[in-house]
Amino acid sequence: MRVATIATCAVLLATVSTARAETAEELRIRGESLAKDGRYSEAIDSFKAAERKEHRSRHACLIGLAYERREAYSQAEIYLDQCKAGATAADPLPEWAPEAFRVLAEALAKQKLVAVLVMASPADAQISISTFAPDDTFVARTIHLPPGKYTFTATAPGYANRTEEVEIGDQAGGAVSFNLERRIGDKPKVVEPSKVPWVVVGGGVALVVAGALVHTLGLAPARDMLVNADATGDQGLYMRYSATFDRDRALAIGLYGAGALAIATGFVLRATVFKAPEAQVAITPTTGGGMLTLSWSR
């Protein structure tokens, strides 16, 4: 019974040990060991697994170097460029990186690979090529490929995928361009500015205009008649227009006041309850220029 218990514990310990996920560092070390044995494809898989665990420029360097050793120079170009672009003081280039860059440059020239310019909108669209591994994707750039037929696919969140069949000759460079269209269900909702504040302002303007009409057509003539009656001492004329003057003056003042209040209320609503969307402008650098993006939120 004791022997069986010990055996069971040993099995459980072995299972727990096997089930423990490898860390990014362990995966990197395993990949380097595989690469030293010339097992570059397995090493690449291990380096990619390490990158999924922890993003580091060094992982891209190792993947690129393994592809270079496998003489897959197009893929090596992608990852060594990522390696160079992502290096920082905290995540520096490996000491062997300059030699890897030199070897790649010589290989690209010696193999007479064709430079293909890949353009895409949006700028962060991921491009894949039929002869590459599915996860060997890249953003818009120039890539060198052997002559032949390729299927390029561009994908981006919220956009419909697009595929292009391209035949690359051995004499000149080529170009592939993608302009992805948003999926119908993912189109951003356009928030129209509310018309309520402007309706209120328009009503206020109408009241002011009405007040001006009362002032011009009623109050002003009645005042003139009262001034004339006072000058001539005509009490009958004065009594006749006195009530009209008082009525039109009260009406004009009321219309002016209500109109001014409505206009002020409209602008307050516009600035608070119906505040205009906040706009944001961003510039994303791209090869040879940049992309201007305008976004807004309520």
Biggest β-sheet, characterized?
3 strands, mixed
Look at the structure and give the mean pLDDT: 83
CATH class descriptor name of the largest domain: Mainly Alpha
CATH architecture of the largest domain: Alpha Horseshoe
Please report the distance between the alpha carbons of the first and last residues.
71 Å
Structural shape? rod-shaped
Beta strand count? 8
Rg estimate, integer Å: 39 Å
Q: What's the CATH H-level superfamily name of the largest domain?
A: Tetratricopeptide repeat domain
Tell me the CATH topology of the largest domain: Serine Threonine Protein Phosphatase 5, Tetratricopeptide repeat
Regions with pLDDT < 50 over 5+ consecutive residues?
Answer: 1-18, 278-298
DSSP helix fraction? 40-55%
Query: DSSP strand (E) fraction?
Result: 15-25%
Which structural class do the helices and strands define?
alpha+beta
Order of helices and strands: HHHHHHEEEEEEHHEE
Strand order of the largest sheet: 3-1-6
Q: Enumerate how many helices there are, as a single number.
A: 8
Number of domains: 3
Give an account of the 3D structure.
20% of the residues are buried. The radius of gyration is 39 Å and the shape is rod-shaped. Helix 4 runs antiparallel to helix 5 (73-86) and helix 5 packs antiparallel against helix 6. Strands 3-1-6 form a 3-stranded mixed sheet. The chain is α+β, with helices and mostly antiparallel strands and 298 residues long. It is built from 8 helices and 8 strands. Mean pLDDT is 83; it is low at 1-18 and 278-298. The chain has helices at residues 2-19, 24-36, 40-53, 57-69, 73-86, 97-110, 196-232, 235-271, and strands spanning 114-121, 126-129, 141-145, 148-155, 162-168, 174-179, 278-286, 289-297. The chain has 3 domains: 21-111, Alpha Horseshoe (Serine Threonine Protein Phosphatase 5, Tetratricopeptide repeat); 112-186, Carboxypeptidase-like, regulatory domain (Immunoglobulin-like, Sandwich), CATH 2.60.40; 196-271.
